[in-house]
Recover the amino acids of this structure.
């Protein structure tokens, strides 16, 4: 016997699957809206040097599931490209290239990956599976280009670069926070089996 589906689960299902039914103008509007949400969440900031701890990752993880692979990826790419072009919506109301620019490429990869998996494999929308997928997106797809760019940036500034120094600056301080953000995003995107 199935448990009754609560109203919140019904709303989540509708929100995270609207992109299947939405027209092109609505998809474009959704991508632009989500880019704005990422920009707002980037201002939720706890300073670290040289890469700050922000709410961006949470919004990026949500973008892929909410908008699907293509439009989730587009929304994050719009956020990155406009920020590089001068829109001051990166962390700390900044724009342009910085030590953390590599993580922005990782954001696009994470949104594409999560959108693809959630679209093709709806059974992955259980909390446990989604949490594992989001951990992979946050701790591998985002960190890999992030630390590569950070190492390049540190070297260009004349610093002695080692794997340990790059991971100390750009990975270790953020793991616990990104695990929490992945858990929160997985909880919000969880869809009961009876609705999948």
């Amino acid at each position: 016997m199935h448990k009754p589906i609560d109203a919140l689960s019904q709303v989540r299902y509708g929100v995270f699957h609207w992109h299947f039914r939405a027209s092109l103008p609505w998809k474009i509007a959704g991508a632009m809206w989500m880019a704005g949400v990422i920009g707002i969440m980037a201002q939720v900031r706890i300073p670290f040097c040289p890469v700050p701890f922000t709410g961006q990752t949470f919004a990026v993880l949500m973008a892929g599931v909410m908008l699907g692979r293509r439009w989730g990826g587009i929304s994050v790419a719009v956020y990155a490209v406009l920020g590089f072009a001068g829109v001051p919506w990166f962390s700390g109301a900044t724009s342009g290239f910085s030590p953390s620019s590599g993580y922005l490429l990782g954001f696009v990869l994470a949104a594409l990956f999560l959108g693809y998996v959630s679209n093709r494999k709806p059974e992955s929308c259980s909390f446990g599976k989604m949490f594992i997928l989001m951990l992979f997106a946050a701790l591998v797809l985002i960190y890999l280009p992030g630390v590569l760019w950070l190492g390049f940036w540190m070297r260009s500034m004349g610093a002695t670069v080692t794997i340990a120094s790059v991971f100390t600056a750009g990975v270790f301080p953020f793991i616990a926070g990104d695990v929490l953000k992945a858990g929160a995003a997985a909880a919000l995107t969880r869809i009961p089996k009876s609705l999948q």
